[in-house]
Structure formats: C-alpha cells, structure tokens
Specification:
The protein has about 425 residues and is mainly alpha-helical. The protein is about 55% helix and about 0% strand. It has a single domain, classed as Vanadium-containing Chloroperoxidase, domain 1 (Up-down Bundle), CATH 1.20.144.10. The chain has a two-stranded antiparallel ribbon with strand order 1-2.
C-alpha cells in the first residue's frame, strides 16, 4: 500500500511527560537496566525463567540429535510442529516481499547522507557496548542471536506467568498459526544490506571490537560471527517484527514486547556486529512493514485467525484471563519495570548526534494508527494519530531524512505513545 499523509500539530514533548522522557541515561545506568534482563539477573525467579527459555531453545535447535553442533545452526527453522505452515500456505497470501524490500531501501535512503561525525559516533557506540558488556550480557546476546528463527526470545517480555504459558503453548504447537504468520511477516533486509554495502564494525580499520565466545548455546567457545553488510540489522528487524505483531495479538503486554525488541537490538552491539544506526534503521522498516500488513484486509483476516488461536491457547495454559495472567510481577518482570521505558527511549537514538534546527512537522501516514489500535482501543483513530505526534522523538536525529515517511518512522516512539495513552 502507499501511505497517505495528514499534517498534525508539531508541538512535541510537553510538560511532565517531556521532562521524564528526555532524561539522559549514563552508561552505568544503561548497564544496570540491561543486566536485569540477562541470565546474571539478581532476581532468582527471572534468572530461572531465562534459563528455561535457553534450555527450550537449545533442545529445539538440537532436535533428534544427541548434541547441538554449530553446523545445525546454519539450517535451523521453526518445525512443522511449532508453526502451522500448511495453514499459511493454503491461504495463498502474497506478502509482497520484493516491493516491501524496495520500500525499506527508500525509507532508509538518508543513510547515504549521514555526516562523518555520526558514523564515527556510531562506531564508538558499538565499541563501548562491546568492550564493557558483562558475561551475562554476552550470554544473553548469544541466546538472542541463535534464537532468531524461533519465538522463544519473546517469552521473557511476557512476564513469568504469561511467559510460561507462552513457552508451553509454543512447545506443544498450540499457537502454530501465530508462529507461522509472525515469521512469514519478516521482510528480509538482504536487499538493503546489498544496496548500502556498509562494512560491519569489526571490519573498520583501527576498531576495538572483540569477538564474543559462545558459552550459552553451542557452548564451544567459538566467537560469534556475522557476514553480509551491517546496515540495517536483519536480526533486529526480526525482533521488531515479531514483537510488534505479538504485541498486537497480546496488547496486555504491548509495551514490554516492543521494549524487548529494542533490548534485542542492544544484543547486536554486545556482539560487536552492528552499529546503533543499524538498529534504528531496522526499527523504522519493521514498524512500517507491520503497519502495511495490518492495513491489508487479506492479511488482517489471517492475523485475526492466528490471534484468536493464540489467545485461546494462552488462556488455557494460564487457567485464567489474559488480563490477569499478564499482570506485572515486580522484580521478576524486568520488561514491565519503569526503568525499561527509559532504556527504550535511549534506544531511539543511542545518544547519536542531533542536528539542531531539524524540528519539522510530523506527517502521520494514513493507516499508521493501526499500530496503536490493539493497545489503545478506547481511543479513536484521530486520537491515536495525535498521540503519535505528541509522544514522538524530537527531530534531527540520524535517518530522519527529508521525506515525510522518513521523518515519521524514525521519530515514532511506540513505547512512549502507548504508555502515555494509558495514563
């Protein structure tokens, strides 16, 4: 679909909401927040659940083999038990991947005009994260990376009770339609990587990136490796697509899920294989692609069918309503913690340089408000569009570009929008 635009008010980030949102996190604060989401979490309940997710992933990757080998990682995908691929194939739905890939390239075209200081800051950003990552962060980064083709990583953003229900339902094949649809909705970043042809951080002369050994999945201590170009991040695109779509199906956990996507992107810097600019670009294209699909009536029919199956299976596993099962669980539920909102805001820019004087009016694409429909059903379409403006990131940050579409998708802060809309 082609997005049409309506110009809305340009006054952003007012009052108390703006003051809280604009608070700058220092590296130590970021590290403290990230550490709560790793196997090294000080909360025993979360650490135990994270360990269960890790074991489920390894068992699934291993399949019928006695031991997981590195060669198996190259061909892993969701099995027919986990994902109802036949149901999706029978629908005959055309995801229009090539057209969406080209739309993504156009959306990210401002990358070619980024000043040298921004690219240098982007390299410094990944070097700092890679150098200072803790053992827990490195282990989590490996788990995130090797779980790309499955949905296990989403469980910890659902909280301990609903997360357990999700794991059980997923393992049993009870959410096969959603599992198939989410993965099929991912639009490859391969064409964009080839188009922009930007080298990975560890290939830049004079870089300080060091490889992160696998001590968490294959457990052979081999450094994690990545090929193809850096921009944009394919893994981060996967995380944002999966998390957004699951958030639309389980809006009770929408904010923790989209924050999990941002956290997943951070893992790519821990591994030293992506710059922060890559993560921002992937967020942009994934948001755009999910909105595109949700505005397609044929896709929406599949989505609604998968959502119904998913919610029924989760309620059955929970033994109660999803609203009850999804309630925040304190320290055992770090993705529902207030500080995670601060991290999500930091991940909008990763403190990359802002060009002053670039505060332009936001043109909200017609249909973009579909992203807020499930988490904010009490608001009208017009109110959701207004909220997208009032909660948007300030202008002038990298990739905001010159076109209305670039400016909107780069500045769209879904976590902030939903949090503000529920007040």
């Amino acid at each position: 679909m082609r997005f049409r635009y309506s110009l809305l008010a340009s006054t952003l980030l007012l009052g108390q909401f703006a003051q809280a949102k604009n608070a700058t996190l220092n590296p130590d604060q970021i590290q403290a927040i990230i550490e709560t989401t790793t196997p090294a979490s000080s909360n025993a309940q979360f650490a135990a659940f994270d360990g269960e997710i890790q074991r489920d992933l390894i068992e699934t990757l291993k399949g019928d083999a006695g031991k997981l080998t590195r060669a198996q990682l190259e061909k892993t995908a969701q099995s027919d038990k986990l994902a109802d691929k036949q149901w999706l194939k029978a629908s005959g739905y055309d995801f229009g991947k090539k057209a969406n890939q080209q739309a993504g390239i156009e959306l990210l075209s401002a990358f070619g005009t980024l000043p040298k200081k921004t690219l240098e800051a982007s390299l410094q950003g990944v070097e700092q994260v890679n150098l200072n990552a803790t053992d827990g962060q490195r282990r989590q980064a490996i788990i995130d990376a090797e779980g790309q083709n499955h949905l296990f990583f989403l469980a910890d953003a659902l909280g301990p009770k609903l997360g357990q229900a999700f794991l059980h339902a997923y393992d049993k094949g009870e959410i096969g339609k959603a599992a198939a649809l989410l993965k099929a909705s991912e639009v490859s970043t391969g064409a964009a990587k080839a188009h922009f042809n930007y080298p990975r951080p560890f290939l830049i002369p004079g870089n300080t990136i060091h490889g992160v050994p696998d001590t968490a999945v294959v457990k052979d201590n081999q450094p994690y490796q990545a090929s193809e170009g850096a921009f944009p991040s394919g893994h981060t695109n996967t995380a944002w697509t999966d998390a957004l779509l699951l958030g639309e199906m389980v809006p009770e956990r929408f904010v923790p899920l989209v924050d999990r996507a941002a956290r997943y992107g951070y893992s790519r810097m821990v591994l030293g294989v992506h710059y922060p600019i890559d993560l921002i670009g992937s967020r942009m294209v994934a948001q755009r692609n999910v909105a595109h699909y949700l505005n397609d009536t044929k896709y929406r029919a599949l989505f609604d069918e998968a959502k119904q199956q998913l919610r029924g299976a989760l309620e059955k596993e929970c033994g109660t309503t999803l609203a009850e099962c999804a309630k925040p669980a304190g320290a055992a539920d770090p993705y529902a913690a207030p500080q995670m909102r601060q991290f999500a805001h930091f991940a909008m820019t990763y403190n990359l340089p802002q060009e002053k004087g670039k505060e332009v009016r936001i043109a909200v694409p017609a249909g973009a408000e579909a992203l807020l429909e499930a988490p904010l059903p009490h608001l009208s379409a017009s109110q959701r569009r207004q909220l997208m403006v009032s909660s948007a990131l300030a202008g002038g940050y990298p990739l905001s570009g010159e076109t209305p579409e670039q400016n909107f998708w780069q500045r769209l802060d879904l976590s902030a929008a939903v949090s503000a809309g529920k007040r």
